[in-house]
Design goal:
There is one protein chain. By secondary structure, the protein is an alpha+beta fold. The chain is built from 13 helices and 17 strands. It has a 6-stranded mixed beta sheet with strand order 6-2-1-7-17-16, covered by helices on one side. Strands 10-11-12-13-9-14 form a 6-stranded antiparallel beta sheet. β12 and β13 form a beta hairpin. The longest helix is centred in the C-terminal third of the chain and has 23 residues. About 0% of the residues have low confidence.
Length: about 425
């Protein structure tokens, strides 16, 4: 007898690893390479279809604390990410091809994991199973999940374009990390003056967008975390200038002045041959992306290696469906993990797979399932997605707001973050020993 894991994304691979390392056989099902969603191009596991950044890595940040908790719990995904780093200031960003390749290698070489390249079209009826098919769950399985668990929510997710490094006009760009964090060449900045920005803004908000399917049009939700740049811009002329294009903390060494607006580019690989347009998720038509984004002086001759895309994401109304151990309230043998549960972010998804994998193993071994301490980021996120008092459920990423308040709250933000982190990691280490996690 084995445990089934459906989906070889970040949550599924992490769940499979956590089960396998404890000596239990896993069947890992994935529709690749036979069937891919519109957003997937590679045959590798854990393909990063949006950003290549896993957000902040410093432990006194919410995202950094989450990753440190995962390191403490021997996360495969964080270990692989650490080995595939590319410079990104204070963030943990990876060479996406190397990252996916390394995870795929680790999974395929694990003697307790059998990879089955097959699309699963309905929820398995027997045995212990983890569904980690992500926000792009294929239609047949998605329909079966909706049939069994009632209301589902859909929203749109968008990815940013990638340009060729050697096509960027370096005369118009400069290297610098905002606020001086990280190495100075972590980000390549594309400055604009007031006149250039206003012309760009006018074309951006009036550019032609790609059409979406009728299903999506009837229920058009755009998740704030992946808001298309053209949608954000419609909120006002200065919205993106105080958002993704904010110039604060930067000074152009060629002029000695702070630009009016700045597009930051982040390295996609170690060789610096590809750059991601940070915060420029978009649903503009491909020719419009080329036309409008090329109005940014440093990108006037840019070669677009990948255009931005927008796709439907689906997640459960988890407070009505899931327990805090990621098991289904109606079926203790069925677990969900990843963004389909309503956790938002790459590492948040992997962390849910980590906990679901541990709990699937514990159920298999006739042990009680667990929820990590409320002081931990993983524990608080799992409690949030299962909180029945949450009425307007929306995806949630790591943030200190989900944690219990500190008894002695420092005024300094960094000190406050460190206090949250110290409390969480101390609680986690004690819990691991007590519960033999």
């Amino acid at each position: 007898m084995c445990i089934k894991v459906i989906g070889a994304g970040l949550a599924g691979c992490e769940a499979a690893y956590q089960i396998a390392k404890r000596g239990v056989k896993v069947e890992l099902y994935d529709s690749k390479p036979n069937v891919k969603t519109p957003a997937h191009k590679s045959d590798l596991f854990c393909e990063l279809v949006c950003s290549n950044s896993f957000k902040a890595d410093r432990v006194n940040s919410a995202a950094g604390l989450l990753k440190e908790e995962m390191r403490t719990l021997d996360s495969l995904l964080v270990r692989c990410a650490d080995k595939c780093r590319v410079p990104a200031g204070g963030a943990l960003a990876v060479d996406r091809e190397k990252f996916s390749s390394l995870v795929t290698q680790e999974i395929r070489n694990n003697r307790n994991i059998t990879v089955i390249e097959q699309e699963i079209k309905e929820i398995p009826k027997d045995g212990i199973c983890i569904i980690a098919t992500g926000p792009l769950t294929l239609d047949t399985l998605s329909e079966d999940i909706a049939k069994n668990f009632g209301e589902r929510l859909s929203f749109f997710d968008a990815a940013a374009p990638i340009v060729s490094g050697d096509s960027i006009d370096m005369e118009c760009a400069f290297f610098e990390s905002r606020y001086g964090k990280g190495d100075s060449d972590d980000y390549l900045n594309c400055p604009m003056n007031k006149e250039e920005y206003e012309a760009f803004y006018n074309e951006l908000v009036n550019a032609e967008r790609a059409s979406v399917h009728d299903f999506d049009v009837r229920n058009p939700k755009v998740y704030e975390g992946c808001m298309p740049i053209e949608v954000m811009a419609q909120r006002g002329e200065d919205t993106i200038r105080f958002g993704p294009m904010k110039p604060v903390g930067l000074r152009n060494p060629k002029t000695g002045h702070r630009p009016w607006a700045v597009l930051q580019l982040r390295k996609e690989n170690e060789n610096s041959t590809m750059y991601n347009l940070v915060g420029f998720q978009t649903n503009l038509k491909f020719p419009e992306q080329k036309r409008v984004f090329s109005m940014i002086p440093a990108l006037k001759n840019a070669e677009f290696l990948r255009y931005g895309v927008m796709h439907r994401n689906t997640f459960l109304n988890s407070p009505n469906v899931l327990n805090s151990d990621f098991s289904a309230k109606e079926n203790k043998n069925l677990f969900f993990a990843g963004q389909i549960t309503g956790v938002e972010g790459y590492m948040e998804s992997a962390s849910s797979g980590l906990l679901a994998g541990i709990n699937a193993y514990r159920l298999y071994s006739n042990l009680s399932t667990i929820t990590l301490p409320e002081f931990t980021m993983i524990g608080s996120l799992s409690r949030y997605i299962a909180d029945s008092s949450v009425k307007d459920f929306q995806p949630m990423g790591a943030n200190f707001g989900v944690l219990p308040e500190l008894t002695d709250r420092p005024r300094d933000k960094a000190q406050r973050g460190q206090a949250y982190a110290d409390r969480a990691l101390d609680a986690l280490k004690v819990y691991i020993i007590k519960e033999k996690v």
